[in-house]
Specification:
Low-confidence stretches of chain A: none
Low-confidence stretches of chain B: none
Oligomer: heterodimer
Number of domains of chain B: 1
Helix content of chain B: over 70%
Main location (chain A): membrane
Strand content of chain A: 25-35%
Distance between the termini of chain B: 34 Å
Keywords (chain A): Antibiotic resistance, ATP-binding, Nucleotide-binding, Transport
Number of helices of chain A: 11
Mean pLDDT of chain B: 92
Protein name (chain A): ABC-2 type transport system ATP-binding protein
Radius of gyration of chain B: 19 Å
Number of domains of chain A: 2
Largest interface: A-B, 31 and 30 residues
Structural class of chain A: alpha/beta
Number of strands of chain B: 0
Largest sheet of chain A: 6 strands, mixed
Helix content of chain A: 25-40%
Number of helices of chain B: 11
Mean pLDDT of chain A: 89
Distance between the termini of chain A: 43 Å
Subcellular location (chain A): Cell membrane
GO molecular function (chain A): ATP binding; ATP hydrolysis activity
Chain lengths: ~325, ~260
């Protein structure tokens, strides 16, 4: 008999509504549906991305999965444990890392922060010292571990967060925008660390705003917008779902008046976006599938001074923007 | 074993992490000078008014100062986590809550004990109040009982911090209540009946009474009933605090108040 492995994370129609009240005497209430029936599964050893704009419900979903929030409706299981009924079992087996400066004991050294969290996660005393040493090595904080965290840079704090999340060798790791505020070198090292963890068998659920990061790392992605999942699949699947064709990026110095409207009016042009980059403006033109609009667009720009002109296929970012805008 | 480590090692680390007064600039004035000023104030008021003797005011005001760390540091157990942004991590950890929070109480009890002992010893020396060496051991036991019971009440305050952002205000009110009701400057027997009723349920009342008796030469055995009552009150408040922590932890997950209380 073939036994089908249960997904490591199984989310079924998960809903979370927040109730807020204002006023001291004449209290008025407001309901916000942050997550509206989200469903997805994550298999063992998979790196699953949850992408979405701010307020889409990513962090709320993660908070329900790590037992910090109770769902309003629906259910979720992590490693076979119900996140409501078996919260204690879930907590011991998952790790949670979030981005930003907070979430560390400022008055303690990095080493003492890790020692304390090792106690909270029940890392046996005989393993604790060695494990903390390994993780300090992994995140590159050796030599700085005895300094108080209040003197750490944002990147160092983020690396300490990651070490903290890995102390108890979690089977599932939730990374909520872990690379936020980290410099490019640090972000690259973080991606390498995450890859190594997945190679070693850890299941990872990642949220990020950096599309190249998701494209590089994720086996599968779910795009969430306004509390609902609007698309799910591999990065390649999502790119194929994009209805746009070729993308043209034109760097131009001094965009003449009225040109933008003329380009938009071209029948094969789907959308046009202008982004100011230093002294130049970058015109990003999305063509209809199968159409070649380069010559038509360039004709409108005759007489202008150009920088680089790039023609490329749609990226994950293009797919993401289209999916989120359509939601 | 893990629970024991969480109790002892975890408790000590968290005390260092969360108790913002562990700086000489705050610690010395708050724990060493302020109690002495309070003792001097009431001793001189007592002398001027011609009521009671110096020893009465010295003991009450020295012992009640154990409540300062016991209430504020314990109350900060949750409030400090919220300020540091570590509260969600604490709640999402699998750590057993009883050793976790009782472990946090241990250094606080020691802190309270040392503050009161310092105030009593230095106050006695400066005011030339005679405390015979034979009474020192018994008085130390009584102060320890007061520190334990007050920390129990502080744990209840810590639990409330899961629902209320600012706990220092609440701790100040509780401290004021102890100074008024617990027989610090007015003997409980001289208070109106309803105040005596309140005093019986407060930490410090029985411990301070026992300390007065011990300083007057009575044996430890003769005040054991009062000290046991003091400890039972501490256990009662601590149990109430742990139960409230459990309930409010669940409620905070339901109402999403961990970050926003």
């Amino acid at each position: 008999m073939v036994r089908v492995a249960e997904p490591v994370i199984q989310v079924d129609e998960l809903v979370r509504t927040f109730h807020t009240r204002r006023g001291l005497f004449r209290r008025s209430g407001k309901e916000v549906e942050a997550v509206r029936g989200v469903s997805f599964t994550v298999e063992r050893g998979e790196l699953f991305g949850l992408l979405g704009p701010n307020g889409a419900g990513k962090t709320t979903t993660i908070k329900m999965l790590i037992t910090l929030l109770l769902p309003t409706a629906g259910r979720a299981r992590v490693l076979g444990h119900d996140v409501v009924k078996d919260a204690h079992d879930v907590r011991g087996k998952v790790g949670y890392v979030f981005g930003g400066d907070r979430g560390l004991y400022e008055r303690l050294s990095g080493l003492d922060n890790l020692r304390y969290f090792a106690e909270l996660y029940g890392v046996p005393a005989r393993e604790s010292k060695q494990r903390v040493g390994e993780l300090l090595e992994l995140v590159g904080l050796v030599g700085r571990e005895k300094e108080r965290v209040e003197g750490y840079s944002r990147g160092m704090r983020q690396r300490l967060h990651i070490a903290r999340g890995l102390l108890h060798r979690p089977e599932v790791l939730f990374l909520d925008e872990p690379s936020i505020g980290i410099d490019p070198v640090g972000a690259r090292e973080l991606r390498a660390t995450v890859k190594n963890l997945v190679d070693a068998g850890t299941t990872v659920l990642l949220t990020t705003h950096y599309m190249f990061e998701a494209d590089e790392l994720c086996d599968r992605i779910a795009v969430i917008a306004q509390g609902r999942i609007v698309a799910q699949g591999t990065p390649a699947d999502l790119k194929q779902q994009v209805t746009t064709g070729t993308v043209i990026e034109i760097e131009i110095f001094g965009l003449p008046d009225g040109v933008l409207e003329k380009v938009r009016a071209e029948p094969d042009v789907q959308s046009v976006v202008v982004d100011v980059q230093g002294q130049a403006q970058v015109l990003t033109v999305h063509a209809q599938p199968g159409a070649d609009v380069l010559q038509a667009v360039m004709a409108h720009l005759e007489g202008s001074r150009f920088g680089r002109v790039i023609t490329r296929e749609p990226t994950l970012e293009d797919a993401y923007i289209e999916l989120v805008n359509a939601a | 074993m893990n629970s024991l480590r969480l109790f002892f090692v975890g408790g000590l680390i968290s005390y260092r992490a969360l108790f913002g007064w562990l700086s000489p600039w705050i610690l010395i004035p708050t724990f060493l000078f302020a109690p002495l000023f309070q003792i001097f104030l009431f001793v001189y008021i007592g002398r001027t008014a011609g009521v009671s003797d110096d020893r009465f005011f010295l003991i009450g005001n020295a012992v009640v100062n154990a409540a300062v760390p016991c209430l504020f540091a314990m109350g900060n157990t949750i409030g400090g986590e919220r300020n540091a942004g570590t509260l969600p991590l604490l709640i999402a950890s699998p750590a057993k809550r009883v050793p976790l929070f009782l472990g946090r109480a241990l250094p606080v009890i020691l802190n309270g004990f040392l503050v009161a002992v310092f105030a009593l010893v230095v106050g006695a020396l400066l005011l030339r109040v005679d405390l015979p060496p034979a009474t020192w051991g018994g008085i130390a036991v009584a102060i320890a009982a007061c520190s334990i019971s007050c920390t129990g009440l502080g744990l209840l305050g810590a639990a409330v911090a899961l629902r209320v952002r600012e706990t220092a205000v609440m701790s100040n009110i509780v401290l004021g209540t102890l100074i008024v009701f617990a027989g610090v400057n007015v003997p409980v027997g001289a208070m109106p009946g309803w105040m005596q009723g309140v005093a019986q349920w407060l930490p410090m009342t029985h411990g301070i009474h026992a300390t007065h008796d011990l300083a007057a030469g009575r044996s430890l055995g003769s005040v054991s009933g009062a000290l046991l009552t003091e400890l039972l009150l501490g256990a009662f408040y601590a149990t109430l605090g742990l139960a409230l922590l459990r309930w409010l932890e669940w409620e905070s997950r339901a109402r999403a108040t961990l970050d926003t209380a």
